[in-house]
Amino acid sequence: MLRLEELLFPSIADVAVLSVDVNDEAVRIEARSTVAGSDCPGCGSWSRRIHSSYLRFPADVPSGGGRVVLCLRVRRFPCPVDSCGRRTFAEQMSGLTRRYGWRTERLRSTLAEVGLALAGRAGARMARVFGLSVSRSTVLRLVEALPDPEVPAPRVVGVDEYATRKGRHYGTVLVDVESRRPVDLLPDREASSLAAWLAKRPGVEVVCRDRAPFFAEGATAGAPQAVQVADRWHLWHNLSEAAERCVADHRGCLRVLAPDPAQTAPNRRSSKTRPARRGLRDIVSLTGREPSTRPSTNCWQAGSVRCGKPDFVRGMRARVIIWTEVRVRPWA
Predict the structure, then answer these.
(1) To 10 degrees, what angle do helices 261-287 and 316-328 make?
(2) Which of 173, 181, 207, 258 is most exposed, with the fewest beta carbons within 10 Å of its own?
(3) Which of 107, 102, 1, 87 is nearest to 45 (CA)?
């Protein structure tokens, strides 16, 4: 049969469960440490003599949708070293509590994983579903407290510049080309900064960069063993610029394919006025009345038609408006 310690704290040693109280609001677990003493966090000296004790109530992961509160009997020990700055210190249960912590370590890790997956607001809403009442700021603070993950040394490094203030201040961004993730940011784009960064990572085999001279100098000085290549975007960009310059230099050799604008101007003018003239003839044939050259103030009086000259200058748009008026309200 499983003991309570193995059931409630499977990954934590040296913990004794004294009692478990279950009610409608929460599950209360009383526990204490079974270790005879503790190490001083200041000097590391071992102390056995108990100075005092107090109760601590850290929140734990919920059970069955209800809150779980630990009631821990924590002991204080005096430091045996007189030169140590700490006179007394409280014991910490490894894997369960930390100094000034209101939550257990497994609850902190659970909320941090929720924050990594959903960020602040959505993570706080999901935590309420689990039975944990936390704010978005708490979730983000737990995520920020996580240590930075260990990034393996990249083999292919992409180097480019970024602007913190465009036209004024630029830095250098370094990207792992194989994983397509940023690796580091340098505060400037000097060759010395890039050379110092590459010198600390001798495993770099390929440096993918643009044609900036300071990047070339930094890559040569910091990673002489690496092969320097041009990235695809800058390669196509430089090719397009070279092709544009070549076409501009030989512009006189190209044949004139476009027609003369002077010959096509009358045709374009007549094509613009033709739809308006057709619309005018259609209105006259339908209504039997000649449209006025001035817009009428009373547009829907008996026998009046709003189709003055300013409307017909708009061409096809004016014709669509006129046909709509005729269809909705035909004249007798």
Answers:
(1) 10
(2) 258
(3) 87
State yes or no: pLDDT of 309 exceeds 80: no
Instruction: Give the Å distances, CA to CA, from 210 to 215, 240, 258.
Output: 8, 15, 39
Q: How far apart are CA 39 and CA 20, in angstroms?
A: 29
CB 200 within 8 A of CB 222: no
Tokens of 166: 């465009």
* Tokens standing for residue 294: 């001035």
CA dist 1 and 37 (Å) reads 30
How many Å apart are CA 218 and CA 199, to the nearest integer? 10
DSSP-derived secondary structure letter, 252: G
Pick from 65, 72, 91, 74: nearest CA to 28: 72
Rg (Cα) of the chain, in Å, rounded?
40
Beta pairing partners, 6: none
**C-alpha span between 290 and 297 (Å, rounded):** 17
Does 76 score more than 90 pLDDT? Answer: yes
State how far the Cα of 273 lies from the Cα of 217, in Å rounded to an integer. Answer: 66
Structure tokens at 124: 């706080």
CA 133 and chain centroid, separation? 25
pLDDT in tens, 120-171: 899 999 988 888 888 999 999 999 999 887 878 889 999 999 998 888 899 9
Q: Starting at the earlier edge strand, list the strands of the sheet with 169-176.
A: 181-186, 169-176, 156-165, 206-209, 227-230
- Strand 156-165, strand 66-78: pairing: unpaired
What do you get for the CA distance between the two ends of the chain, in Å? 100
As given in the structure block, the two tokens for residue 218 are 């930094």
pLDDT tens-digit profile of 22-70? Answer: 888 788 889 888 888 888 988 888 998 999 999 999 988 888 778 888 8
Helix axes 136-144, 105-130, angle to 10 degrees: 150
pTM beyond 0.70: the answer is no
In angstroms, the CA 21 to CA 30 distance is: 8
Count Cβ atoms below 10 Å from residue 77 Cβ, excluding itself.
Answer: 22
Under DSSP, the state recorded for 251 is G
Pairing of strands 88-90, 59-63: unpaired
